[in-house]
């Protein structure tokens, strides 16, 4: 416990003093990206998105309208057809653990819903694109912000599958170290910075705006200045990531020959 206290105080004080972070970056730098599409030959669309030590292997599968997920309401007998499904898998091996793979965990449900919100706003209507779409994000390694890597990978995999999304979508996780009146906002936080810091603020969106937000904080609250700086740095990071994604694929591909015909 004593060693952990020293670790926490040392890391936080270095960040507040403007010194390099754990991995040598400054407060507003995004980790190195590696982006590939079409990595799985027989899928309708696939992408491998790597940001530092966080990696998501994302696949897109297209089905007919009849493949939509049926959701029954509790209050009435009405049924809703959901034509877009996004599943997020976080197996133990991605963080070097040997735990058993059993049912879906709370983390996977929550992160999947967040990634889904980030993507849904940019999907075409069922009239314009008459397919059911299933996206699966498999986290193969994780050191912070795997849900936002899933957003980036999902956008790439959808475009690889020929889905005419309205705009590329990227996500970034922002952090915070605060001590009284001193504070530093961190872009693209590591797992350790999430653990030792005061905030995990996930922002997903396009070059034109924000699609989804989620904030977890360990302090009583944040000021308007902190929020403004966090959103500004998140926008800069998002534009940087989208720019690199566009170098790999900027327009949707033709639909895969393996995709169903409608």
Automatic annotation (TrEMBL):
Biological-process GO terms, alphabetical: mRNA catabolic process; RNA processing
Gene3D superfamilies, per database record: GHMP Kinase, N-terminal domain
Every Exoribonuclease phosphorolytic domain range: 30-164, 168-237
Polyribonucleotide nucleotidyltransferase RNA-binding domain ranges (all copies): 3-26
Cited InterPro entries: ExoRNase_PH_dom1, ExoRNase_PH_dom2, ExoRNase_PH_dom2_sf, PNPase, PNPase/RNase_PH_dom_sf, PNPase_PH_RNA-bd_bac/org-type, Ribosomal_Su5_D2-typ_SF
UniProt KW keywords: RNA-binding
Gene Ontology molecular function, alphabetical: 3'-5'-RNA exonuclease activity; polyribonucleotide nucleotidyltransferase activity; RNA binding
GO CC annotation terms, alphabetical: cytosol
Alphabetized SUPFAM superfamilies for the sequence: Ribonuclease PH domain 2-like, Ribosomal protein S5 domain 2-like
Protein name per UniProt: Uncharacterized protein
Organism field: marine metagenome
Organism phylogeny: unclassified sequences, metagenomes, ecological metagenomes
């Amino acid at each position: 416990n004593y060693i952990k206290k020293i670790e926490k105080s040392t890391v936080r004080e270095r960040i507040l003093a403007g010194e390099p972070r754990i991995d040598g970056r400054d407060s507003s730098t995004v980790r190195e990206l590696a982006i590939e599409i079409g990595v799985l030959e027989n899928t309708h669309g696939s992408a491998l998105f790597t940001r530092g030590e966080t990696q998501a292997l994302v696949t897109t599968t297209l089905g007919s309208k009849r493949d939509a997920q049926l959701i029954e309401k509790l209050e009435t007998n009405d049924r809703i057809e959901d034509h877009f499904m996004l599943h997020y898998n976080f197996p133990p091996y991605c963080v070097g653990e040997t735990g058993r793979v059993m049912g879906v965990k709370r983390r996977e449900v929550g992160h999947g819903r967040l990634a889904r919100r980030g993507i849904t706003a940019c999907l075409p209507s069922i009239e314009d694109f008459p397919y059911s779409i299933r996206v699966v994000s498999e986290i193969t390694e994780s050191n912070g912000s795997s849900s936002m890597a899933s957003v980036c990978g999902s956008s790439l995999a959808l475009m690889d599958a020929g889905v005419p999304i309205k705009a590329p979508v990227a996500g970034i996780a922002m952090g915070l170290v605060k001590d009284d009146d001193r504070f530093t906002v961190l872009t693209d936080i590591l797992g350790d910075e999430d653990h030792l810091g005061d905030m995990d603020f996930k922002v997903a969106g396009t070059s034109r705006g924000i699609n989804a937000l989620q904030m977890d904080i360990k302090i009583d609250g944040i000021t308007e200045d902190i929020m403004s700086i966090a959103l500004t740095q998140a926008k800069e990071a998002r534009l940087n990531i989208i720019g690199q994604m566009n170098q790999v694929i900027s327009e949707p591909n033709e639909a895969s020959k393996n995709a169903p015909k409608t």
